[in-house]
Amino acid sequence: MALATARDSSRRASFEAVEATGVARAFAGRKVLADLNLTIAPNEFVALLGRSGSGKSTLLRILGGLDTGYEGDVWVPEQRSVVFQESRLVPWLRVLPNVLVGLSAGADGRDALRRKGLDALREVGLSDHARAWPVTLSGGEAQRVALARAMVREPQLMLLDEPFGALDALTRTRMHLLLQDLCARHRPAVLLVTHDVDEAILLADRVAVLVDGRLSLDVPVDFDGPRRRGDTRFVELRARLLAELGVDESATRPDASG
After folding, report:
1. For the whole prediction, is pTM greater than 0.85?
2. Which residue ranges make up each domain of the chain?
3. CATH code for the domain defined by 42-66+79-248
4. Under a CB-based contact definition with an 8 Å cutoff, are residues 161 and 57 in contact?
């Protein structure tokens, strides 16, 4: 089933930023997604949790137009960006050309495009790295470039596939704050695929859990920030999500009685 975008709006039934109905995907006879339904509203941030192999990245690739071998109906905005766990920077291009890779100057000209790229780098705190080579960047800096490359395209939908999974805890926290700031400024709809339950609760408006190819749970994070891990509502939602993932947190804790 071909992906329907803003260019093919006649099939669209609502005003959601993402509308997926009855989506199924199989590989070598093994069903990864089965009759999956998902909607994401404009400007809404949804986090998707699931065990390894549950189909999270498969769904993201379908929404990004990177996998067309699915069944069902999918509507997404035409303007989309994808950020992966690896920054996927082109090693023989400096940072600024990496941000602008694949973009054409258009009627505004190359100078305007260059300014746009520099503005994107400024937003992620890397305006002084425009001429740096990717090999000289830290992991966090490379992911900042990847975010700048995503945002410079002014996406209506941003798809994030565990973009902070390889970063250390401190860098990940800083990236969370940066992502929140970028989303507040640009207001895209966001789907974040993650294994990190805490990350999902900290960032998302809604958290969905994928089990056996279907969304088994889809809940709002309905308490205002700042969200703190010690907050009772945070702890209760975390326990609920872990239970849905088949994790008994109490069973993994050491006996305090010693």
Report:
1. yes
2. 42-66+79-248
3. 3.40.50.300
4. yes
